[in-house]
Amino acid sequence: MEGITSIIGTNLKKLRKQHQFTLEQLAQKTGVSTSMLCDIEHGLTNPTITVVWKIADGLKISFSDLIKEETPTVTVAREQDVPIQLDGEGFTIYAHHPFDADKKFEIFSKVLAPGATFESDGHRKGMQEYLLISQGILHLQLGEQAYTLKQGDSIRFAGNVKHLYHNPGEEPLRAFTMFYYGDGGE
């Protein structure tokens, strides 16, 4: 994570240019001196909250527009670096791309050993679960319905239903899951 001084400086310069202001014009709009604005843009000084508010008001933007860190356009999750989210008897769940509030989803992978079972009581209402089998066989119990999925198969279901994953095969089951958090409530 980048330091807050650098984040504010980068955001200030980008926003100032978007508004097509010179440093002098921005100084007039904000009441912050040209030299202070220049130092902030170059990351040479850490502005006070009062100064950040003056700049935000002068640019007619939110305070958070100046302090938020830019989201990278590309994020690579290398298998060896993906953290374990949950580790139990015969199963492991990895968090490839954790929850993103703007996009309302997260992506995990599951590995179930031969004969292993993993049960979920269900998640919040409105949530959808997408599951793609990349290796092995899965018996999936969704409430009263049972499904058998094999490599290359996928399924989507309401995540608030109790569900049970079982690997009846002789090789590990590997699957990718995407949870989509819709607007269906808590």
CATH class of the largest domain: Mainly Beta
Q: What sequence of helices (H) and strands (E) makes up the elements?
A: HHHHHEEEEEEEEEE
Strand content: 35-45%
- The quaternary organization reads as single chain
The side-by-side strand order for the widest beta sheet comes to 1-2-3-10-5-8
Low-confidence stretches: none
Question: Layout of helices and strands, plus pairs?
Answer:
Elements: H1 4-18, H2 23-30, H3 34-41, H4 49-59, H5 63-67, E1 84-88, E2 91-100, E3 105-112, E4 117-120, E5 127-135, E6 137-142, E7 145-150, E8 154-158, E9 163-166, E10 173-181
Antiparallel strand pairs: 1-2, 2-3, 3-10, 4-9, 5-8, 5-10, 6-7, 6-9
Gist?
The chain is α+β, with helices and mostly antiparallel strands.
Provide a descriptive summary of the structure in words.
The chain is of the alpha+beta class and 186 residues long. The chain has 2 domains: 4-67, 434 Repressor (Amino-terminal Domain), CATH 1.10.260; 79-181, Jelly Rolls, CATH 2.60.120. It contains 5 helices and 10 strands. It has helices at 4-18, 23-30, 34-41, 49-59, 63-67, and strands at 84-88, 91-100, 105-112, 117-120, 127-135, 137-142, 145-150, 154-158, 163-166, 173-181. The strands form 2 sheets. A 6-stranded antiparallel beta sheet has the order 1-2-3-10-5-8, with no helix packed on it. A hairpin with a 2-residue loop joins strand 6 (137-142) and strand 7. The chain starts with a helix and ends in a 5-residue tail after the last strand.
